[in-house]
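Q: Predict the assembly, please.
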Amino acid sequence: MNTGTAGAASGRNGGAAVRLEAVDKVYSTEKIETVALSHVNLEIASGEFVAVMGPSGSGKSTLLNVLGLLDAPTTGRIVLDGETVTDLGDRRLAALRNREIGFIFQSFHLIADLDALDNVQIPLLYRPLSSRERRERAETALGRLGLTARMHHYPTQLSGGQQQRVAIARAIVGGPRLLLADEPTGNLDSKMGEDVMRILEEYNRDAGVTVVMVTHDQRLAERTGRIVRLFDGRQVH
Amino acid sequence: MFGNYLKMAWKVLGRRKFFTFVSLFGIAFTMTAMLVAVAVADHVLAPSYPETRLDRMLVLASVAMSGDRASWHAGPGFKLADRYARDLPGVERMTIYTGPSESSSFLEGRKLTFRTRGTDAEFWRVMEFAFVEGGPYTKDDDEKASRVAVIGESARRRLFGSDPALGRSFELDGAEFRVVGVVRDAPLYRLHSSSDIWVPIRTITAAGFFDRLVGECEAAFLLEPGADPDQVQAAFRERLARVEFSDPALFHTIVGLPMTQLELLARLGSRADDTSPRLVLALSLLGLLAFMALPAINLVNINLSRIYERGTEIGVRKAFGASGLDLVLQFVVENVVLCLIGGVVGLVAAVVVLESTVLVAADLALEFHLNWRIFGATLALAIVFGLLSGAWPAWKMSRQHPVLALRGGAS
Ligand SMILES: Nc1ncnc2c1ncn2[C@@H]1O[C@H](COP(=O)(O)OP(=O)(O)O)[C@@H](O)[C@H]1O
Ligand SMILES: [Mg+2]
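A: Predicted assembly structure:
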């Protein structure tokens, strides 16, 4: 298990290992409390490809957000590469997300005001790099996803599959060790979905990056190493 | 990093042309209004022709006399200024004059109306008028109540056409006056000096004019360089305590102070009383600040909606490693850029508004022009507004949970 962030530069191998210990997530609004996650214990090893399945509202996105340090659990612990990260401050968490984690969303979430190249550079903006370096890395990432010709297109000028590939380029450009994909194929037809799936598999296999993917597609889920099922915020076996 | 924010701001603003335009319009409009206000205030408050020494002048413009059953608020009467306001310590010169009142003159069967002031001879040594013909009337003229007059250039044009006026006579409210001097017109907002015609104060024939404590006069005091206005005010307060009243059963107290221009404006519309001018000034400044808060709130609103629209962007940036501070900085830079551009547009619009006012209202001899002070004020306003109206919404948004911001779509 890789317990350090040394060798974090480009092309680094090995995925992150994450562990959730007794994690509860409760959303409280004025009137109601929603239990989105209930006593979840989950250990994901370095380099694993895990699929998360469950009906709508069962807590899949919440689980991903907690794993991605975007959302703090109400109780319980998150351990990333052996380090407890539950109580870190905003800036430390931001730095960890920036270096270690890449997100892919169902609805792509590209920034409409920026072209593909600028969108892909976003994670690099929060690192001490020269603008030339940022640009070159973004171009490389887009190239790997076959989007060299689309670098200066804005999101609205791209098809859904192309947008998701830009989003994947954005997720991998910083060389993360944990990729979190929330229904990445949910808005795509089966052919484009297959493309995206293959990219994730390749990235998992070649770079050893840990991948956690939420999906409703049983056939895609079966291609991963393990399926985690949620029901009403609980893990079911 | 900063350059990055700038570049990003530029891209986003350029990409959202409509929104940028709407924001810019709002900002520029606000800036224009504020700049015009600043320019007018600047010109009313700053020394300028013919009140070139306004910064060391105090003016006694209103007093209040009271007794057990009655009170009377008005300007100081001639007697009050003449008997009790002379030779105050720290005062170099003092003049007594009336406010401009309307007089009429019949010229070849046509009735012309003029603003006329009665002034003593010292008036011409406290105010600094530029004479284009002749000169001021003298102390001797005033004491003898000679019917002589100084007229402004526009009054000369109306009375005598394009001819020189020196030595010529005209009729004013039924009496004949001889022109001894012609001056360059004073702008209307030179509250203590501007008029069309000036005549010796002792030519005034109204009954009892010279015996009143309260009346239609003003007294202006030119302080010695470095004199402390507070001490002059204190000395005048003491003088007022010694005023002799003709009928103490009716009136027995009188209050009122010579004040700086700022203090006078702060009190505009309110009556003379003994409250500290400082306090009134502080309160007025507070009011002004509250007034300025309105455009600021407007800008915050514009920016708030601009930033709210970009909840997803904020979520994405947070997900990929932006800290709260990064986001605040990004939006603040974007905003300051926007406000600076708006400031420039506003400045141009303000120049147009001011200069066209000057042109349209040529009669009023206004002199509202922009200067470095005002330019500096714009720059400062733009930056302050940019910071304030950007930082708060951005901070608010950066607190918002990225997960919420990203929710649209992730079922
Ligand atoms: N920010 C939030 N505030 C309140 N309730 C929330 C919030 N986010 C999610 N929930 C609730 O938590 C539960 C799990 O949501 P989610 O993780 O999005 O489910 P899934 O992704 O499996 O559809 C749902 O009942 C949802 O309504
Ligand atoms: Mg979901």
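The two ends of chain A are 26 Å apart (CA to CA). Residues A 60-61, 182; B 410-411 surround magnesium ion (ligand 2) (CB under 6 Å).
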